[in-house]
Each structure stands twice: as C-alpha cells, then as structure tokens.
Amino acid sequence: MATRKPRVDPLTESELDELDRFLLSSGTPEDSMDLEELDGFITGLVVGPGTVSASEWLSLVWGDTESGKRPVRFGSAVKCRRILELLDRHWATIGWTLHSSTPTMPILFDYTSGGPRGPADPAFDLVSGSTWSIGFMRAIGVHADAWQAAFDDDDAGEWITPIVTLAHADDREIVELPLIQSQVEALVDSLPESTLELYRFWHGAGDEGGKASAVRKPPKLKAGDPCPCCSGRTFSLCCGASISLN
User: Fold this and answer.
1) DSSP one-letter string for 155-194
2) Number of independent structural domains in the chain
3) In a domain, 243, yes or no
4) What is the pLDDT of residues 63-109, one digit of tens each?
5) Is the pTM of this model over 0.85?
6) Is 8 within a domain?
7) Residue at 242 is within a domain
8) CATH of the domain at 157
9) Residue 42 to residues 7, 47, 61, 92, 104: CA-CA distances in angstroms?
10) Residue 103: half-sphere exposure toward Cβ, Cα within 13 Å
C-alpha cells in the first residue's frame, strides 16, 4: 500500500535560519521584514478574509512603499527561486495547519537589549511577541475594511485583543500602561489559540466539524508578474525562466 504524501513540507530549522539570514542580509532593503514579522504577516494573511496576489504580499515583505519598489538583490536566479520556495512552503505549512484545526506556534525572537537580536539602546526594547503581532497587523491592513467585522464581533474582538496589545505595547494611546512580564507572557501564550479562533471565524471549523472553506494556499507568481528581483522584466523572462539544459 502506497504511503500518502504529506500535504506540506515544513521548513527545517536550518531552512528557517537560511530564510532569516537572507531577510537580514544586505541583499534586502533595510525595511524588509525579519523572520518573526514575516511569520506573523503570513499568519494574518492566511487567517483573514480576502485574497492577495503574490506580487502584492511579496512587495510588503520587502518594505515597498507608495513611492516605489525597493530593490531586492538575490544574487542569482537560483537564489531567487530558492527564497520563493521557502516562502511558499512556510505559507503552505501555516495554511494546512490552521485548516486542520491545529494552532500554529508563532516564531518569536528576543529583541530586548540583552537578547541576541536586541537593539543597542534599551529604550527601544520590544516586548516578546510584538514584532510577530506587528506583522499580523500589517496583514489586517491589507483588508482593513473587511476586518472591521471581526473587530465589531464580541468574540472575535477578544481574540484580536492580544495581537493588538502586543503590536502596540509602546503606544500609550492604545495600551495605557507598560506591560509587565507576566502580562506579556499571558498574551504570548494566547496567540496560538487566538489565531486559530480567528481563522475559524473567517473560514469555518475545519476538520473538527462544520463546513470549512478551502485551504488557504500560497499565491503563485504569474508569468507576467514583475520579477521580485526588480529587474524590470517579467518573472517568466527573468528569475522564473526555465533552466537551460544546454
């Protein structure tokens, strides 16, 4: 009897490190997301309503603005395809995990001044989970009008609260008092369940019962889409071109 192939191919620790190194490298714009923010961003896009094109969500990963695209230097077409593969697989893993009614575990780093990724100035310390939540909030911003229904719903509003609180932990207009460590830990612990409940709010109950929508698969770059390397050519005529066998 043939063994059923897994629906997803989750990134290994070394592949996550590979993706993280690229996001933090000189090849990406200064405002590009890091791995934690990327994880929150993809989770938010999978959890929420609406769809997004590959070009649109990738441009937000690189930190593009209304004034123009930021160049991404992959170094080679092979590297470009490799990074796109890692992004695609990470999205697919989150999509299938939530579709199966399993909470996803957020990727979190230590951004405090004493941590390995912390800033030199302690005044700019970030609480645990804030960067992930900022990424999730950026995903909400992609379909802000549609997300209002969740903010207006009593249950969904409670599930969004930990994400909003962590994303705005240093904004005294939203979070009146600085969070103490026990509060941060409680908010971080609630993220997996909150994201799963928000996914169910928008897309149904999945394998546990009830009718669920289709798996939120990663959007694919189309042949005519601009190449992510910002060469000015289409993806099919640049990094997406077939590898020559000659």
Assistant:
1) HHHHHHHHHHHHHTTT-TTTS-SPPPHHHHHHHHHHHHHH
2) 1
3) no
4) 876 656 778 999 999 999 999 999 999 999 999 999 999 999 999 99
5) yes
6) no
7) no
8) 1.20.120.740
9) 18, 8, 10, 10, 11
10) 11
